[in-house]
Amino acid sequence: MQLQNNKLIDLQHITKSFDGNMVLDDLCLYIRENEFLTLLGPSGCGKTTTLRIIGGFETPDKGQVLFEGRDISDLPPNKREVNTVFQKYALFPHMTIAENIAFGLKIRKKSASYIKDKIKYALKLVNLDGFENRMPDSLSGGQQQRIAIARAIVNEPKILLLDEPLGALDLKLRQDMQYELIRLKNELGITFIYVTHDQEEALTMSDTIVVMNQGYIQQIGTPESIYNEPENAFVADFIGDSNIIEGIMIKDELVEILGAKFVCVDKGFGENNPVDVVIRPEDIDLLKPEEGTIDGIVTDTIFKGVHYEMCVMARGFEFVVHSTDYFPVDTRVGIRVDPFDIQIMHKPESEDEKAVEIDE
Fold this sequence. Notes:
Blueprint: E1 7-18, E2 21-32, E3 36-40, H1 47-55, E4 62-67, E5 70-71, E6 82-86, H2 97-107, H3 112-125, H4 141-153, E7 159-163, H5 171-188, E8 191-196, H6 199-205, E9 208-213, E10 216-221, H7 223-228, H8 233-238, E11 243-251, E12 254-257, E13 260-263, E14 273-279, E15 284-287, E16 294-303, E17 308-314, E18 317-323, E19 332-337, E20 343-346
Parallel strand pairs: 3-8, 3-9, 6-7, 7-8
Antiparallel strand pairs: 1-2, 1-4, 4-5, 9-10, 11-12, 11-14, 12-13, 14-20, 15-19, 16-17, 16-19, 17-18
Helix pairs in contact: 2-3, 2-4, 3-4
């Protein structure tokens, strides 16, 4: 459930389709002031369409976009207090860096001294002092992305929209830019709305993550709650690695998995009801066979650098396990899971069942 205090953007019952294909279906979402909110999901889930509707590049078929309580659904992008940074940086190749940054300010007819000060401020903010006279093609991908961000922030938007802005960068640059974006958000004190399909990016940078699939919001929460308390199997499977197993909730705090009884901490699922059980690979302890709740055979082992990733076949289910302890293939092991690390979920009635309802 989302808190409603300090609402900056309020999307109310947004519906959008293209060529008869529903992309967003009655979507409701609050975005708070000074929040770093990430729209996360697979391709085609509706996250970029949501961003474009906030930015004014798309108009919803139904519903309203409220900005500080005012309906801006039909307002063009240049009339909104919003700037967008795209994956393709869209820098003007024939302009210097200073001219690129100044472009929006000149359109708004700001004075030359004001523009000069703003260029200097923006370049310092993105750690590119002295780059005023360089041309875009002389910069690396990471530097071009910083210039695109600098060009957006000099206009002092209340909201910065970022549409997969790090997708074209290599892994090291992407990680560096994640920390840069966190720093910028904290220094600027503006709202960031970020679109990505990269779970690691979302978990690293966000105050709030909105997980989307098939035009619906599946879950809203902090990175910790999304990872540790997934609302449904889609979220559990999409955010990190998960073992998702069919189980029977015998009673409060007791679930049957693969014919064995596991103590858990969840309540309110009734008695003897079918449920989905989520266990993260890092939450499984491998022990001597007689010390586990169930036992199995190691079928595969891969060294991942920080840990080993192992597959353990137990009672017809193949568990994925992450451990710093090494167990060779064909080793018989016991499996134990702490009660707090067993997450119970209701079985959905259908694949696209909405897991989250947003209060008006």
